[in-house]
Amino acid sequence: MKLISENQLVLDAPKEWQRRHFVNGQWRGAAKEAAYHRLMALDLDTVSADDVNAVVESDLLPITHCDFCGRRSYRAVVLTTQTGEEFCICPVCVGTARSLIGYSYVEGYGIL
What we know:
Layout: E1 2-4, H1 6-21, E2 22-23, E3 26-27, H2 30-41, H3 49-56, E4 64-65, E5 72-73, E6 76-80, E7 86-89, H4 91-101, E8 105-106, E9 110-111
Antiparallel strand pairs: 1-6, 2-3, 4-5, 6-7, 8-9
Helix pairs in contact: 1-2
């Protein structure tokens, strides 16, 4: 199980842009380099994922689709089955699942 959070996507955006567009010590064009510098100038502690995508004029940051309700979100929990299949679950569906389970004490985990 892993968490995809908008905050982490935003913090990783400059590094991800550089990984995609700075190859063999060179930028893939002046526009890619300029976009990188615009990303570096953002206040990554307050900017949203939509703001980052607008700066680079593309969908650098992925929007996940909930496999249960179809909502689009920058935040999700990814569950992996024993066979390796992954399912994304949005915060709304996680909350719904939690309310269905109810609050209970599980040894080793505390109150869920």
